[in-house]
């Protein structure tokens, strides 16, 4: 049996500031459960919680440790966002479908709030701060404002507020933007504490989580699926694949591997800022994102700034990619020129062909939920639950995310050069202001 390589732990701000986690327990024997789940991020842990609420026994297998994937590394921006705008969805699929997708996105944020409250995850420090999208030029601002007007007209959404250039400059502390639109439906969170809090809820609900226990293969025997790990196995009635951008670690998730394109996203954290300097940036304490195609974003964590954007192409981080991000941060905020960066880390987001998540059942007993396109804290929390609803015969609302089988990316072996080429075009369009 070919074992996956040891997975290195990222040195992120989140790991350095997280509440302690219990010592990992490896799977070292044969276990049975109603449902086996591969991946201990938001999707997998939410699936386990849903299974427990349905009265099913659940076992989660994690190749590394809880939150090792995107769930424990992300920017902590909880939002209702899809990568495609609701206006585009309405134009392509009709207003009713867009309304349904809008409803689901609000349910997703509500799901995070419910989890925090129900499981007492206070150390996730969630704050409903709102997210401000900052327009990098007049054209982008006009589009943002049009989207806000469409949302108000079609969905009665009054939570989107257009802000002028002076207000955005005051809020952010940067003069790079010509205006923006504030979305009041989202907020910011400590993502690793949220993940660990979900894991604690799974354990206290009677579910089991085995870490450092990669699923290396699966087999079907009668009406059961057997999931093999290097030192044990789980026999279960249902299986959930919850591996998102990390679906290529072993063959066990081959069924979904080619349905997502992993794209590296990177984050910098500054040293704590002096009070005088801190008073000049992020004055409203929200998350802020840009309208550029190669989107950058920033948010506070205590007195630090977190600044994120595209990471290195390829399998490894590069100094050049982090340096480029730091240069972008200091260009956006010249007042931070002499500020030290204490943490640099990255993770894989999963892109899909239609820019929407994919949720469904492969056969009658294997569910999948993945492809969050970089906006998955809220949506994966909800979709982990809904994929279990599907497996047990329910008809949860999934809108355009429902798939009978996940859509495979054509010419998958060429994904890396394709990503580079697309990013190059996007960078060019951003540079020329289109
Ligand atoms: C740098 C970065 C910043 C981001 N910022 C934001 C943000 O601000 N807001 C937002 O909404 N979204 C953000 N995202 C996206 C969001 O984090 C993801 O959409 C979400 O965490 C996906 O959760 P998941 O549980 O589906 O997958 P993951 O959290 O990636 O979990 C998958 C898990 O599967 C495990 N696994 C894989 N193969 C196996 C195997 N064979 N056996 C056992 N385990 C296996 C992996 O080890 C991993 O832990 C960001 C992502 C990144 C990388």
UniProtKB/TrEMBL annotation:
<dbReference type="GO" id="GO:0005737">
    <property type="term" value="C:cytoplasm"/>
</dbReference>
<dbReference type="InterPro" id="IPR036188">
    <property type="entry name" value="FAD/NAD-bd_sf"/>
</dbReference>
<keyword id="KW-0614">Plasmid</keyword>
<feature type="region of interest" description="Disordered">
    <location>
        <begin position="1"/>
        <end position="25"/>
    </location>
</feature>
<dbReference type="Pfam" id="PF01266">
    <property type="entry name" value="DAO"/>
</dbReference>
<dbReference type="InterPro" id="IPR006076">
    <property type="entry name" value="FAD-dep_OxRdtase"/>
</dbReference>
<feature type="domain" description="FAD dependent oxidoreductase">
    <location>
        <begin position="34"/>
        <end position="390"/>
    </location>
</feature>
<dbReference type="GO" id="GO:0016491">
    <property type="term" value="F:oxidoreductase activity"/>
</dbReference>
<protein>
    <submittedName>
        <fullName>FAD dependent oxidoreductase</fullName>
    </submittedName>
</protein>
<keyword id="KW-0560">Oxidoreductase</keyword>
